Amino acid sequence: MRSRRRLGDWYAYLFIGPSLLGVVAFLLLPVVIVFVLSLFRWELLSAPVFVGLENYTRLAGDGEAWHSLWVTILYVLLCIPLQTVLALALALMLDRRIKGVRILRSLFVIPWMATPIVMGLVWDWIFDPRDGALNRALGLVGVTGPDWLSDPAWALPAVALVNVWQHTGYTMLFFLAGLQGIPKELYDAASTDGATPVQRFWKITLPLLNPTMFFVTVTNLIGAFQAFDTIFVMTDGGPGGSTDVINFRIFGTAFREFDFGYASTLSMLLFAVILLVTLAQVRFFGRRTTYDLS
């Protein structure tokens, strides 16, 4: 019996081996390498010089780096709540057997399939203050639109809006899958007991969507904290650093200033923030989530 169990264990390791190798090679090992690089001063063309915690001491007093982190947090707060609410609303509307619903679902997912660079160029034209489609549309109703991407007050919300537009449909698919996994008998029983649609949503739908909500918020938050492509194309971190998110600062430090050691330190800061936020989400959803609907 023990030999069979051990043989079964080896079969299990054999099947999870490729995935485990991928996690180690492409997730854990890069983190270790970046941490090691953060302990060096390296300008790429010269030999690395070990400096210990010097880069971390520099980070503690680097106001620009902390400003970039704050901009990143604002960007996340602008994106994730709106994106999540819109995605859930779309899923609720499209979770019906109506003619053409599959086409509508596909249309909402198309923005997510667009190349970020091309999408950024298109939105750059839409936000153009003189010839852009948005300000032209506002002009038709007598409203003078701002200089979206050149105004520090509007640049970050504009870029965040593009992120919401791109990812809402994709997020909607997960909510739609979660909704279709909720037993319809629960709604029938609630209706029999006289529950209103609003009560069914708050007492049945939302609690049973917690596993989906957990997955969506974790993945979307990680993606928002790593924002780069659209900002690079649309604003290049400007104006006045108003869209200088931490990932963009890492890029500039590494490939414009050629300070790879300090860029690695900034990367470790981003990693630590994402890890703490993820652990907080795990703690928050852990006691509120049930996976067994039987």
Structural class assignment: mainly alpha
The residue ranges in which pLDDT falls below 50 over 5 or more consecutive positions are none
Strand adjacency order, main sheet: 1-2
- How many DSSP helices? 13
Helix content: over 70%
Could you walk me through the main structural features you see in this protein, from its secondary elements to its overall organization?
- This protein is mainly α.
- 73% of the residues lie in helices and 1% in strands.
- The chain contains 13 helices and 2 strands, in the order αββαααααααααααα.
- The protein has helices at residues 2-37, 54-60, 63-94, 101-113, 116-126, 133-140, 152-180, 184-192, 197-208, 210-225, 229-234, 246-255, 260-286, and strands at residues 40-41, 49-50.
- Helix 12 (246-255) packs antiparallel against helix 13 (260-286).
- The mean pLDDT is 89.
Layout of strands and helices, then pairs:
Blueprint: H1 2-37, E1 40-41, E2 49-50, H2 54-60, H3 63-94, H4 101-113, H5 116-126, H6 133-140, H7 152-180, H8 184-192, H9 197-208, H10 210-225, H11 229-234, H12 246-255, H13 260-286
Antiparallel strand pairs: 1-2
Helix pairs in contact: 1-13, 3-7, 3-10, 3-12, 4-7, 7-10, 10-13, 12-13
